[in-house]
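During the reporting period the student researcher (J.K.) took over the structure-prediction task from the postdoctoral fellow and processed the backlog of single-chain submissions. One of the processed entries is reproduced below for the supervisory committee.
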Amino acid sequence: MKREDATVTAIAASGILTERGGSRLSKQALKHLGAIAARRFPLRPVAPEKLNSDAELLQSTTYWHGTGRYQRHGGKIVDVFGGILEQGELRPSLDPFDPDLGMTETVSLAKKRAYALAYADMHSDNPAALERLLPAQTLANFYVVRAALTHGYREAQKHPDGVRAGTKALLAEARNRHAQLPQSWKQKTTTRKVNELYAFGVGSDIPGNYPILLGFDDQVPTIKTSAAIAATREVRTDKPISLSRLVHVEVPVERMVETQTMLSEHGLDVPVVAIEDMEQVVARMPIADVLV
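J.K. obtained the following structure tokens:
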């Protein structure tokens, strides 16, 4: 089956699930993800007092941004995190993905940590070794793939020539939007040939790369986005985000000292938490609270 035909079929199937399952779709997905999470634990132990302090940071965070230490830009490997620290802010970049906004410049943020973690984990050069409540691609399937297929089906239904024709039109529109970028967002982390919707689990082929989660407070102005974007629990801002709005930074446990040093060198007194430890915090929460 050709990729385009497979996408058409997937969108149609999503529509069937949405129409027949209604609101039960999310409940079924949550139940399934809860079962996956239960099978993947226990992880390494963390002292209760450490879990409690990390939980306070989690509660104080409103928005998350998933990134990594390195990315490819213009064919060169760039120290992205170092650049953010040098700038003192997280700056908007080209964004063609919201069909209502068109080509614009924004910073993408998540209202749920798990969503941002999926993007952060794309930067891991060893994804198989990550200690996670839920793996990156599973999170992406819940947030991104499910929302994209459901929204795509609903939009395709509006085409006068039917769902298949509507889907092909939507795919052509998406390709045109992506063509306006100097590179796809997937190419920032890997040169492997994989569909972007399913690239979250393959990790990065940049040696030494690792995931980073930036947690911000509620003093970030956001803009109105399309229903398709909102369905993923994602929000956007068209303003630079000052690093003074950081509540905490999460990195792999072996990168904590290095990260704390980098922050201190740039005059930032921000708590650094191991992603593995924060995963222990969210593991104590109901799966619905973790995801939605």
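The committee noted the following: The CA atoms of residues 13 and 251 lie 37 Å apart.
J.K. will present the remaining backlog at the next meeting.
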